[in-house]
Amino acid sequence: MTALITLSLAACATTEPGLQPQVNVHAVEAQDLSKSNDETSLRVMTLNMAHARGTGMNQMLQGTDKALLNLNSIALLLKQEAPDIVSLQEADRHSFWNGNFDHVSFIAEQGEFHQSVSGAHVKNAGLDYGTALVARLDLGSPESIIFNPTEPSNSKGFVVSSFTWPGNECVEVDVVSAHLDFSSKITRSEQAAEIIAVLKRRNRPVILMGDFNADWRRSNSVVRKLADELGLHPFQPDDLTLVTFPKLGKRLDWILVSSEIEFQSYRVVETVVSDHLSVVADLGINRSCG
Questions:
Q1: pLDDT tens per residue across span 51-96
Q2: Distances 142 to 18, 19, 133, 135, 185 between C-alpha atoms, Å
């Protein structure tokens, strides 16, 4: 879900070459971040960070110290779960309402991730936030796409980057962090169409993660649309116990993967660091070199 405050901001549903994100390299403690040749599984995680407000009503009602406390809780959770790649939404970089510092870099460094990609889907009026990826693997070919702005919510979008699957040097996969509109099914469908177009152009196997603000049960669900049109599948989509947004009792946060990628495990993490619960999945791939 989005914050309670709403601003009218100009943006466009496009990639802007001059504003495309870079892969940021972070200084972490000396450690072996590589996987062994026989370790071919991948652990991924998705979390809506809620602008580092934790379960508070609004990030404007807290100080920088509280934001730092909440971010440290997120970083600790990531270290405990030890994912290779994390998809983040409502991830601030330099916003006035929660400390004017880069939350993505903070999470990457405190969580011991050596690379990140972040996209500013809102960058105006003292705000700078969007979606991001942090990783212990090398990332490449990053893109950031801003959806058309829609009232009453601020602009949303997604970032995508590629990585080489552990133990399969010839298998390159796209990983996505996306955040879709909360207020309109029509808008979510339009946003899904933009995701589909970009990922079809990039033409790689896909791990699509994020806050889709939709569940699976409706026949016109945007989650179903993304899965059907990109050839992706979720983990047990009809399981009503996999609630990720407790306030509404709904599963709004998803991990969708291409047909050659399989779920080895999947769970909603009960540790509370946001109004959304995080999701962790272990993945394998049915593709090899040669």
A1: 888 787 666 656 788 888 999 999 999 999 999 999 999 988 887 7
A2: 13, 11, 10, 13, 28
